[in-house]
Write a structure and sequence with these properties.
Elements (H helix, E strand, L loop, with lengths): L8 H4 L2 H14 L3 H11 L7 H9 L3 H19 L2 E11 L25 H14 L3 E6 L8 H13 L1 E2 L2 E2 L2 E5 L5 H9 L5 E2 L7 H7 L8 H5 L1 H7 L5 E4 L7 H19 L5 E3 L20 H14 L4 E4 L5 H10 L3 E3 L30 H10 L3 E3 L3 H4 L4 H9 L4 H18 L3 H15 L5 H15 L8
Parallel strand pairs: 1-2, 1-10, 1-11, 2-5, 6-7, 7-8, 8-9, 9-10
Antiparallel strand pairs: 3-4
Helix pairs in contact: 2-4, 2-12, 3-5, 4-12, 4-13, 5-13, 6-7, 13-14, 15-19, 18-19, 18-20
Length: 472
């Protein structure tokens, strides 16, 4: 039986409820009066239920679909403005004991180079990332209790935070590692991580078990209930996502929203982020072997409706997607993107040769961080390296309450301006710097509160003189 407040995976992600919702959406996908009711509700910017969102997803009326896209853009601007947060993944190790059929790190793959960074390797990687201008990382690691125990992850986090190189510093370490225990989540919380991220890959239990035939990840319930254990371990910012292409996208979309509803219902705070990766080519992985691939138009619709359904949640797109697709998705709801990314172990300090590639997936946007920053500004977005909410303890319910009131921009906009100023002074090319300085003038003039504007101007002056990591 479906119960969003249950702690049991098969009750808060109810297969029966998902199938019923799919039928309900199919029956109402051309019900214009009902679709109009849903859109009117969505305009209140309080979100939608998984059933209402599913109807919008399946709506085939061209005029209404354009209205959906327009509304998604409007909601995104109201909550997040024109800010786009930048980050980079950092792969610590690709040793893994799982048998995931969609990932080249699976245990049976004997020809991919297995690598695990030492703390000195990590130091070199982090300095390389700092020299690009990054302030926020998402660390990634395969599941292997011998090679990648929690102690290794914790030591690596400590190393990352300890490195100060020139004006560089990593101010937020998000963690994307396998489902673990409440005790280990407590340790991650004590290590001062940002967001704990874990993708479900697929919510359909029978498909999940086939896609994960061996290893600890085979346990569907343990994996699906990981966010509950993370919350109990004190981590109040969690990030969820599915890997689109493994299972029917409608099923995954509904289950993803049900997971968000579950976290909201039980803990009073939904996911801090939702990621929407699509399966990509990798070492011994052929995406065409999976029959549920989605085209770009369907992908855009998914992003737009997620934005409408959970307006308060940050949405992430990685370099799995190409430049053109990422541009379209920025308009429809994406608020965080990676830039200058490497998906291999040790790929930043010493870019690897093709014959020793340890990449998890093929990157489709190979631009440098500077090129991505300049591109965003040319599109009139404000690139942000801000981590102030984390540093000021605006996390979990505190962050969400501010965000749901559409007040988070009062903090994020000035902080984005200040972190962009840092980037322009410390890392930007001349061309990027020129565009950026003009954008800063424009963004400062958007600040209507006189006191706020004076603080920002004062801080920008301090940054120009060498001060770093100022927070509004």
């Amino acid at each position: 039986m479906y119960n969003p407040k249950s702690e049991k995976a098969e009750e808060f992600i109810s297969n029966e409820e998902i199938l019923n919702t799919i039928e309900f959406a199919k029956e109402n996908k051309n019900n214009l009066s009902f679709i109009n009711e849903i859109l009117e509700k969505a305009k209140e910017k309080k979100g939608l239920s998984h059933k209402e969102a599913a109807v919008l997803l399946l709506c085939s009326e061209k005029e209404k679909n354009q209205e959906i896209f327009n509304l998604a853009k409007h909601i995104k601007e109201d909550f997040y403005g024109n800010r786009i947060v930048l980050f980079a993944p950092l792969y610590l190790s690709n040793y893994c004991i799982n048998g995931c059929t969609y990932c080249p790190y699976h245990a049976k793959n004997k020809h991919i180079p297995r690598k695990k960074m030492t703390q000195e390797d990590i130091r070199n990687e982090v300095i390389a990332l700092q020299d690009m201008g990054h302030k926020r990382l998402a660390i990634e690691s395969g599941e292997d209790p011998i090679n990648n125990p929690i102690e290794y992850i914790l030591e690596s986090i400590d190393t990352i935070y300890s490195i100060k190189h020139k004006n560089g510093a990593i101010r937020r370490v998000n963690v994307n590692i396998a489902a673990t225990t409440v005790e280990n989540y407590k340790k991650l919380h004590e290590a001062k991580i940002g967001t704990y991220i874990l993708f479900q890959e697929t919510y359909k239990k029978d498909s999940y078990e086939k896609l994960h035939p061996t290893g600890p990840k085979h346990n569907y319930n343990y994996h699906t209930e990981a966010m509950d254990r993370a919350m109990k371990g004190g981590i109040d910012d969690v990030g969820i996502g599915v890997l689109f292409g493994l299972e029917n996208y409608i099923y995954e979309f509904i289950a993803l929203l049900m997971h968000a509803e579950h976290l909201e219902a039980l803990y009073g705070v939904g996911p801090h982020t939702i990621s929407v990766p699509r399966i990509r080519k990798a070492d011994d992985i052929d995406p065409s072997a999976f029959s549920n691939a989605i085209d770009d138009e369907t992908f855009k619709k998914i992003v737009a409706v997620i934005r409408i359904a959970v307006p308060y949640t940050g949405m992430i797109i990685s370099t799995r997607e190409n430049k053109e697709c990422r541009k379209d998705l920025l308009d429809l709801g994406i608020s965080q993107i990676s830039g200058g990314s490497k998906t291999s172990v040790g790929g930043y300090y010493r870019p690897e040769q093709e014959d020793e590639d340890s990449s998890q997936f093929e990157v489709n946007d190979n631009r440098t961080l500077d090129e991505v920053v300049r591109w965003l500004m040319e599109l009139d977005y404000l690139p942000s390296f801000c981590t102030a909410c984390y540093g000021s303890h605006r996390t979990g319910e505190r962050f969400m309450s501010i965000c749901k009131d559409q007040q988070i921009h009062n903090f994020c906009h000035p902080n984005a301006i200040m972190t962009l100023k840092e980037y322009l002074l410390d890392y930007a090319s001349d061309c990027t710097k020129n565009i950026g300085e003009n954008l800063l003038i424009k963004e400062i003039n958007k600040i209507t509160n006189k006191e706020e504007k004076q603080v920002v101007l004062k801080n920008l002056e301090l940054i120009s003189k060498g001060t770093r990591d100022l927070k509004f």
